Amino acid sequence: MTEKNIPDAASAENPLQTQDNEAVIAATRHWLTRAVIGLNLCPFAKAVHVKDQIRYVVSAARDMEGALLDLERELQWLSQADPQAVDTTLLIVPEALLDFHEYNDALFFAERMLKQLQLEGELQIASFHPDYQFEGTDPDDAENFTNRSPYPILHLLREASIDRAVEAFPEAETIYERNEALMRKMGVAGYHEWMAQPAEDEDGANDNVIDDDEVGKAGK
Q1: Phi and psi of 151, rounded to 5°?
Q2: Of 66, 106, 109, 199, whose CB is crowded by the most CB atoms within 10 A?
Q3: Which ranges are annotated Acidic residues under compositional bias (predicted)?
Q4: Of the candidates 220, 214, 213, 149, which has an alpha carbon nearest to the alpha carbon of residue 190?
């Protein structure tokens, strides 16, 4: 199965850049299948992955302004796209927003952009970053790894899809607590050990969802 891998415009004329983008997407897909799906951090992610409804976009931006311009384009694109073809977009920013504080500043402007584009209530932006840190935690606390990704990512979701997923998963409010507990049980070393292994099927449904016994083994 081939997902929707969208390089930036310049890379279409640059084979080396295209190759780099493919590596970025491959690393992101591994994180999605091994961490997000494999650890069941998001119970809703597997369905759109299996249905080939994820759009991967690699931004060529090297600063916040460029990243926000790409975000604006992708928000408008997703709002007009057929939900059955593309349900969600991962905007990957490998060359910008590497500082987590700058990334948080960009999120502030991203939320303001949603309002300016009159897409608030239709689309939502979720955040992932290599140095993600929840308020009140230390940088090395295991629970931060629930939102750590290989590169800065702006995840664009449809509100309607979120509503349907929550209806199908009545205890959605417990996901956050479950994920934190899982990460603390695995530990940072256990998480890295888990991620160093390949997903069972990088191109389709990942059926290697971790169980409690595996959590214990990974955390040792």
Answers
A1: -140, 165
A2: 106
A3: 199-214
A4: 220
Indicate the DSSP class of residue 120: B
Q: How far apart are CA 177 and CA 181, in angstroms?
A: 6
Contacts for 117 with CB less than 8 Å, ≥ 6 apart: 72, 75, 76, 79
Q: Please say whether the dihedral angle defined by the alpha carbons of residues 186, 193, 40 and 132, taken in this order, is positive or negative.
A: positive
H or E segment and range at residue 203: none
pLDDT at 214: 53
Q: What pLDDT is recorded for position 171?
A: 76
Q: Which two tokens stand for residue 158?
A: 């449809």
Q: What are 29-47's pLDDT values in tens digits?
A: 999 999 999 999 998 899 9
From residue 197, alpha-carbon distances to 26, 60, 78 in Å are: 14, 29, 33
- Domain locations in the chain? 16-191
Using pLDDT thresholds of 50, 70 and 90, give the confidence band for residue 169: confident
DSSP-derived letter for residue 61 is: -
Q: What are the structure tokens assigned to 43, written together?
A: 């119970």
Paired tokens of 5: 């891998």
Residue from 172, 107, 180 nearest 145 by CA: 180
| Sequence-ordered list of residues with C-beta below 8 angstroms from that of 38, at least 6 positions apart, any chain | 194, 199, 206, 208, 209, 210
